[in-house]
Amino acid sequence: MPDKPAQLTHLPEWRVLAQLKEQLAGTPIRDLFRDDPQRAQRYLVSGAGLTLDFSRNRLTDATFDALMDLAQTCGLEAQRNALFDGGIVNRTENRPALHTALRQPLGQGVRVHGENIIPEVHATLDRMAELVSAITEGRHTGYTNKRFTDVVSIGIGGSFLGPKLVVEALRPFWHGQLQCHFVANIDGTDIAETLRSLNPETTLFLVQSKSFRTQETLDNSLLARQWFLDKSGSEPAVARHFLAVTANVDEAIRFGIDRNNVFPMWDWVGGRYSLWSAIGLPIALTIGMEHFRALLEGAHAMDCHFREQPAASNLPVIMAMLSVWYNNFWDAQSHAVLPYDEYLKHLPEHLQQLDMESNGKRVTQNGNAVDYQTGPILWGGVGANGQHAYHQLIHQGTRLIPADFIIPLQSHNPVEHHHATLFANCLSQASAMMAGKTQAEAEQELLQAGMDQDTAQALAPHKEIPGNKPSNILVMDKITPTTLGALIALYEHRTFVQSVIWDIDCFDQWGVELGKQIGNQILPRLLGNETEGTAGDSATDQMIQLFRSANRP
Ligand code: F6P
Fold it and tell me: Name one Pfam family in it (predicted).
């Protein structure tokens, strides 16, 4: 494992940034606008169909340069090249992380263990295309020769969130022949409610699991299989109705999936980066392969932008370094993602896994505990709804919450003046967060409205909005497969850049494993198969007893 030149917080660039923070602390963003008429134009960058306005940040040119210097000193360029070239960037699992190869055109090679993987990626895309056309053209039908009408995708985590986000976001591109449903949770309600309205004759099941060892997915798939067998009464029909996507082909076959129905994944694709692989089949089946390929093209365009643009005009680098700036120098504990587009309503959930599973780490690549904060809590929701809920805390709460507003310039549903109103809401929120309202302004407003001096004075502190809350605005012409692909890839690279600065492995997730291990010890006790000793602690034992008394056979 390569040595860092020095511990992060001892780097000269880190100290410069700490000083710049002190200098900027008394200067509100609105003063930066007042002093620089060109600010909005200068802090606007575009790439791969996306435009980022990052002018509403606690940022001066000196800070921006210092952030870019820090990125350079942390070896971003070399690590970025290693990411694209198949270097072992996931060091704890001794693997590359080549989601970028999944969207690379034929002709450019990427080698893993000496073998060019791009032809295999494209062979799998061609198999996906063949399946999609066989199903939509009615060549691959259900066991009673009826055409498929529904697809149930069974998977969790990265085998669920990315496909769900994209299927919903690209609703205007649905061809309408197939309705996609997602089952993720082990909570029986998820699958029971999904199966309730489905016809087994016309339902296709996709078992989506990189490892083919995930309990939620396997249990739900077994249940779906049993439901299908009960209704169809035909074991051979399973082969027509059940497909799998996995890197563990043998296990899928052992489970009962026909070998010809297993689509490959590879250990060099992380679960949370897998929507670009055959895990994207729910997407391809819903919008067609042409649009799925356009999604890949959009992501590839962002890959090229990330790889080729200098740091100072590089969207993922700028967004990542701003996040480092607030996280490590301004003590921001969370980051809000606020899509102003109904179609993007699942974006925060997908980015939560992407960012928090990736950068929720506490030791450096060399295994030393960090002495700085790593990944912040990522959260958010669709605008304008959030304005009537949690925006209040952003405006007047005690915490600093940097936000990304994401909004298309054009709507797929241009009804009346709705899109202009939505856009106005988005701009007004960014503006209110930045400008705020002073106590004097609040008091003046109240006096002008006819309030007496004493009451106005008493009320004004409650109406003061401190402002100086940073935000980015990210726009694209419209939500299309290409712009959506670029948007998701942008956040993937933003996550990666942060991990480079924090010197952590953003491609493993060991913390998730502990819960799984303990769960395996508890389950036999809940089922009454194991009664001796303790499950680990008396509080857990007590709850096990409560559960057992409520669920006696
Ligand atoms: O929850 C942890 C995790 O390992 C994720 O990283 C992954 O996306 C998810 O489980 C599902 O894993 P699999 O695709 O192997 O079933």
Answer: PGI
Contacts of 488 (CB under 8 A, 6+ apart): 162, 165, 166, 275, 299, 350
- Alpha carbons 352 and 200: distance in angstroms, whole number: 34
Asked if 436 and 369 count as a contact pair (C-beta separation under 8 A), the reply is: no
Q: Is residue 156 lining ligand 1, measured as CB closer than 6 Å?
A: yes
Q: How far is the CA of 352 from the centre of ligand 1 (A)?
A: 14
CA dihedral of residues 363, 366, 372, 374 (deg, nearest 10)? -50
Which residues, at least 6 apart from 163, have a Cβ–Cβ distance to it below 8 Å?
153, 155, 182, 208, 275, 279, 280, 281, 282, 283
Task: Give pLDDT tens digits for 234-288.
Answer: 999 999 999 999 999 999 999 889 999 999 999 999 999 999 999 999 999 999 9
Report how far Cα 222 is from the mean position of its chain's Cα atoms: 28
Q: How close is the Cα of 513 to the center of ligand 1, in Å? A: 10
Contact 103, 162 (CB under 8 A): no
CB 472, CB 57: distance < 8 Å: yes
Can 345 be counted among the known catalytic residues?
Answer: no
Mean pLDDT of all residues in 318-325: 98
DSSP conformational letter for 263: E
CB neighbour list of residue 291: distance below 8 Å, 6 or more residues apart: 170, 173, 481
| 155 Cα nearest atom in ligand 1 | 16
CA distance linking residue 131 with residue 137, whole number of Å = 10
Residue 218 Cβ < 6 Å to ligand 1: no
DSSP letter string over 82-100?
HHHHT---BTTTTB---GG
CA of 498 to the centre of ligand 1 (A): 22
> Where are the alpha helices (H) located in 25-96, listed in sequence order?
29-35, 39-42, 61-73, 76-85
What gap in Å lies between CA 496 and CA 170, rounded to an integer? 26
Q: Bridge-partner residues for 437, per DSSP?
A: 465
> Looking at the predicted complex, does its ipTM rise above 0.85?
yes
Instruction: State which H helix or E strand residue 180 sits in.
Output: strand 179-183
Distance of CA 404 to the CA centre of its chain: 13
The one-character DSSP state at 37 is T
Q: Using a cut of 0.80, tell me whether the model's pTM lies above it.
A: yes
DSSP assignment of 314-364: -HHHHHHHHHHIIIIIS---EEEEEE-SGGGTTHHHHHHIIIIIHH---B-
Q: Is 175 marked active-site?
A: no
Contact residues for 442 (Cβ-Cβ < 8 A; gap 6+):
459, 460, 463, 464
- Whether 171 and 225 have beta carbons less than 8 Å apart is answered as no
Residue 419 among the catalytic residues: no
Measure Cα distances from 536 to 67, 543, 546 in Å: 46, 12, 16
Report d(CA 405, CA 106) in Å as an integer: 35
CB of 272 sitting under 6 A from ligand 1: yes
Give the chain's mean pLDDT.
96
Which residue reads 């963003």 in tokens? 29
Helix (H) / strand (E) containing 425: helix 418-435
Four-CA torsion 210, 216, 217, 219, nearest 10 degrees: 140
Q: What is the DSSP string of 448-470?
A: HTT--HHHHHHHHHHH-B-----
